[in-house]
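Methods — Computational structure assignment.
A single polypeptide chain was analysed. Its primary sequence is given first, followed by the predicted tertiary structure written as structure tokens.
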Amino acid sequence: MKSSFILLAMLISVFGISVARAQETIDIAKITCDQFLTGQVYDAQTFSIWLSGYYHGERHNTVVDVSALKKHALDMMDYCIEHKDMKLMEAIKNALGAKK
């Protein structure tokens, strides 16, 4: 009985957190590099994947080079470290360029 209660409590806490997060909205254009680097906005890895998809979609490119994804993420983070007050979307364009 006690283990069932613990399992139920864990499930409620996991789903409760998921529901709470799903209701958040984020204005991507307002995020600064500093907010991204310090994780103030959202999980950085999830957010990086979303940003990659966004920019690939902007260029109508359905092919994602997974091996280059990590390198691009590191390049972007290095750029953001030096430009913490810059908006993230602008930093991505500057760090990765229009063709990447």
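Note: The chain has a mean pLDDT of 75.
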